[in-house]
Amino acid sequence: MTILVTSTDRSTGKTAVALALAKAAEARGEDVGYMKPIGTRLRSAVGKTIDEDPLLAREILGLDAETHEMEPVVYSPTFVQEVVRGHEDVDALRESIESGFDDLAADHDRMVLEGGGSLATGGVIEATDADLAELLDATVVLVARYEEPGDIDDVLAAAETLGDRLGGVLFNAVPDAAFDDLASDVVPFLESRGIRVYGTIPYQPDLAGVSVADLADELGAEILTERASTDALVQRFVVGAMTANEALKGLRRVRDAALVTGGDRTDIQTTALEASGVKCLLLTGGIRPPEAALGRAESEGIPVLLVRTDTKTTIDRAETVISSGRTRDADTVDRMSELLGDYADIDAMLGE
Predict the structure, then answer these.
(1) Is there a contact between 144 and 174 (Cβ–Cβ < 8 Å)?
(2) Average pLDDT for residues 305-316, to the nearest whole number?
């Protein structure tokens, strides 16, 4: 059997769920393979663009497959542009995905596939997650978030897109305030519409937060500092809209925070570098700070990110990323395995 784990949006815990399911199948005596046909979590390393999720899967599952075998399509902006310009053969790309899958599947009892960034990802090569589920004969596990009733629209739209390939929905990182409504109202509603709900996992503070690198990736931010590490975790945001003196008092009380302020507020930026709890500066408005300020940040080891959106828009987007978290290591996958055992029907998700 092949399972494809997709999501209604980015940063819903899709990777953690996919790898936790793979480990659950292994615990049942199965030999499990992994594939992410469309690579979206991209990093540049040694002149190559790679996706970190297959690397993590190879480590956790002890796989021998090479990264390019587990991830045949690197879905970078340059790649999409080449497709749009007619420089890529769409049929050949789909065939490479299918043949690569067949080669991997031949060595395993079960395959776990991880979807792209969203249900729309891969559309230019006719390889969305819905397309891939059909092409590779996969049953889909849909990971979704729920904070308010309007979020159900996304689930219904996804169910319509996935059709008969949808096995069921797993709600992840559900806030305490929404948990009861989800269980008492939303789950029965969805099941009355023929949509199975595998489980509802409550929000876990220990899984919250993202690395600075992942935050930059999700926001499409430019990293202005070359030598400052982007491995630190960010769990909250502080808006630098006050005076420097006021800012320092507040910043000394926070930890694992990103300071969000305008690129022209060098006074706030400099002040933030004195607070040990600030892990990065997130500058808005597309305004690049003076080189002296960047040099100071480099010397303090604090990465500086730059986005073109305004502060409010940036905060709204960043809060969504933070609240969802990202899979970081084997410990995160182990924690998700525990949560699936406590709050979800793993047997149903594995088709047993």
Answers:
(1) no
(2) 89
